[in-house]
Amino acid sequence: MTATGALALVASSLVAPVAAPSARAEARECTEGVTRFVQQAPPAVARLGAPTAWSLSTGTGVVVAVVDSGVAANNIHFPRGSVLPGKSFVGGAATTDESGHGTAIAGVIAARDIGEKSGVVGIAPAATILPVKITGGQDGGDEEQQRSANLAPGIAYAVAAGADVINLSLSTTANRADVRGAVAAAVKAGVIVVASGGNREQAADAKDGLRYPAAYPGVIGVAATNGADVVTANSIRGPQVDLSAPGDNVISTFRSWGDCVFSQEQQSSSYATAYVAGAAALLRQKFPQASAAVIAHRLEATASRGSRTVRNDAAGWGVVQPYEAMTAVLDDTVAGPVAPGGVARPTPPPAVSTIDLTPAPDPRAPDRNAVLWLLLGVGAAVLGLGMARMLRQPQRS
């Protein structure tokens, strides 16, 4: 993730940075206070087949919590009612956003189409955004300390406020008890939790491995892909990665001022996480009675991947495919992740090549045998004539 600053989560004495890309830092084409629009539609919307998926679901009635820097609710892509009041843990209103990161994430998820002057639209364009502001705000102070103090309470608030999906576009190497507990409570409550699998932005991110909250049980961890649907080099590899989604050339909402193009130079799993959260919102509307685990299974089982039976630590189960996730008929015969409550299919033993030494039948064997007997008969006759001639010859003294 591209960061304006690291955020730290503290586990006892451990301090680990968490990166969250800043829309303000990346949006070099956009100027604060100047409204502009991008007429091009977000490339990821087409790549993920969203227009086809919208024939089945647009996220209507689904609440997606964006636990981040707030959401600028006065952006034109967020008409009245599309962004709830939410809660700020750092002073001021949750519907304001000083950094722009939360607004960009919210736009990826649920920006409304405003017509010809802008191509920006979210992947779940009728979902409702619940802003949970855990950094920035009027209180000032260090962002690392803000996020460290507010992440777990922010998750708990989102659950209590009725979120169906929680988007966490951040990651850390620290396994904190309070965050782990908040996530566990969210999962138990049936909330779909989606989190970044991590990016190589800080010195601590040079190595692959577990990143949290993505690594907690029940969380969908997400990696970023490029325009060719290949996982980017800067995405962290690890068992926390369940799915992947586009993280480059993201066109989304720019604070209060229309649109902007983000992540042009470096792909970000923050945006990829938002695309998966939006896909989860589509499925939640389509399957209102399904458990969070079933929704996650549908997303993972139908993801686009090279091998249907194998996940890997780079892409997880593959690139999310919302339409396929809503239309697939899933049973125990479908290759891929084990369904909730299912039993892992045994891995078939490798095929062993054997050599069959049984001679192949000879269709001309009878003819060959007849010829052999004929030759033996002729030989015997010739031998008999020769012996007879020898016996008739006169003996010499």
TrEMBL record:
<feature type="active site" description="Charge relay system">
    <location>
        <position position="68"/>
    </location>
</feature>
<dbReference type="GO" id="GO:0006508">
    <property type="term" value="P:proteolysis"/>
</dbReference>
<keyword id="KW-0645">Protease</keyword>
<dbReference type="GO" id="GO:0004252">
    <property type="term" value="F:serine-type endopeptidase activity"/>
</dbReference>
<dbReference type="Pfam" id="PF00082">
    <property type="entry name" value="Peptidase_S8"/>
</dbReference>
<keyword id="KW-0812">Transmembrane</keyword>
<feature type="active site" description="Charge relay system">
    <location>
        <position position="101"/>
    </location>
</feature>
<protein>
    <recommendedName>
        <fullName>Peptidase S8/S53 domain-containing protein</fullName>
    </recommendedName>
</protein>
<feature type="transmembrane region" description="Helical">
    <location>
        <begin position="370"/>
        <end position="391"/>
    </location>
</feature>
<dbReference type="InterPro" id="IPR050131">
    <property type="entry name" value="Peptidase_S8_subtilisin-like"/>
</dbReference>
<keyword id="KW-0472">Membrane</keyword>
<keyword id="KW-0720">Serine protease</keyword>
<dbReference type="InterPro" id="IPR022398">
    <property type="entry name" value="Peptidase_S8_His-AS"/>
</dbReference>
<feature type="domain" description="Peptidase S8/S53">
    <location>
        <begin position="59"/>
        <end position="318"/>
    </location>
</feature>
<feature type="active site" description="Charge relay system">
    <location>
        <position position="270"/>
    </location>
</feature>
<keyword id="KW-0378">Hydrolase</keyword>
<dbReference type="InterPro" id="IPR015500">
    <property type="entry name" value="Peptidase_S8_subtilisin-rel"/>
</dbReference>
<comment type="similarity">
    <text>Belongs to the peptidase S8 family.</text>
</comment>
<keyword id="KW-1133">Transmembrane helix</keyword>
<dbReference type="InterPro" id="IPR023827">
    <property type="entry name" value="Peptidase_S8_Asp-AS"/>
</dbReference>
<dbReference type="InterPro" id="IPR000209">
    <property type="entry name" value="Peptidase_S8/S53_dom"/>
</dbReference>
<dbReference type="InterPro" id="IPR036852">
    <property type="entry name" value="Peptidase_S8/S53_dom_sf"/>
</dbReference>
